[in-house]
Design a protein that fits this description.
Blueprint: H1 4-16, E1 37-38, H2 49-66, H3 69-72, H4 78-91, E2 98-101, H5 104-117, E3 124-128, H6 133-146, E4 149-153, H7 163-167, E5 174-180, H8 192-201, E6 205-209, H9 221-224, E7 228-231, E8 245-249, H10 293-309, H11 311-332, E9 339-340, E10 352-356, H12 360-369, E11 372-373, E12 375-377, E13 381-385, H13 393-411
Parallel strand pairs: 1-11, 3-4, 3-5, 5-6, 6-7
Antiparallel strand pairs: 2-8, 7-8, 9-10, 10-13, 12-13
Helix pairs in contact: 1-13, 2-10, 4-10, 5-6, 11-13
Cofactor: pyridoxal 5'-phosphate
Organism: Saccharopolyspora elongata
Subunit structure: Homodimer.
Length: about 425
Amino acid sequence: MLSHADLLEKAHVLDETDPLRGFRDRFLIPEDSDVVAYFDGNSLGRPALATAERMDRFIREQWGRQLIRGWTDGWFDWPEEIGNRLGRVALGAAPGQVLVADSTTVLLYKLARAAVDARPGRDEIVIDTDNFPTDRYVLEGIAAERGLNLRWIDTDPAEGITAEQVAGAVGPNTALVVFSHVAYRSGYVADAEAITRTAQDAGALVLWDLSHSVGAVPVHLDSWNADFAVGCTYKYLNGGPGSPAFGYLNRRHHGHARQPIWGWIGHRDPLAMGPGYQPVDGVRSMLSGTPPILGMLPLLTGLDMLEEAGIEAVRAKSLRLTDYALELVDAWLLDHGVALASPRDPERRGGHITLRREDFREINDRLWQRGVIPDFRAPDGIRIGLAPLGTSFAEVHRGLSLLAELVGARSTR
């Protein structure tokens, strides 16, 4: 096992040979910041320097000069235009199937409601017990609203959903299955293609939550033959707090899947202001209210960087980061009552790892006080989220060194 000095030297070598190392300099990292190591890029990405410039320019030159004319000069088309780009750069989706709008919760509700309504006579939704709370809560609400039954698959919080579990749960009554591609707690990467095929063979529709995938793990919605997908843009895409979400509606469902929140922007002719709702064709039918134009600006910067880097190169660095983090965990933490709650297999590991110990809630608070910022997930997990474009290997060493110090100090009392 390498010494502390050798592990630090390895971090420096990994940083020096990192083909994506220049991207870290494009983020706002104040020189006087009290942050020693930022391990929460899987919850909220750092702001890019170019984002401030882009927003200032937009306010002064587009909003300031065009005023309301901006809507007819292009803003109305942004949900689809930016959605198309997101689909191409990060989602493996052909044009005309992705749009940017709303929040993940709202788009999840719209797509899930459209899905269950598209399967009349089927009264069951399948979801796993460790899916993200919003997904579970939204589906509980839809089940109550539509008189449907929820079928729960028990999943290990240290792992995730498998095709075998899905095969044992779906049947002739299943209308919809909803799972996360990357589990929010463990970082487990599901076999989305196999799960999609298994559910569809039973006649069900499939909705994927990509919130912990997009921008860190390659996604191939079209080749998976997915029906629907949703996700947020404020994690690895650096869209900023509360940035708009995205939704995917496979082309074969256009004109058939009908979402429940009918608003003027989703109308066939939104400026006619006439009686009766007539949905526009295509993925734009998933829109309801006014698009969040200002909220899309940081996402454009995030897509610029992701497209330049390439999602495969980002994934390669993500795995190098988590491999190195696991090396430190093995060297410093596992002998102090810390358990790994994430896959070691790189094929099944997303962009973060989770560590568990019964006193980690308190230790997480102490880490924050000392400038190491992971996040805590009840009952006893600390997530180490490593954003490939903004995280350095030396930063991983600094942060986990302090965690090891705190864990070692407590375990010897």
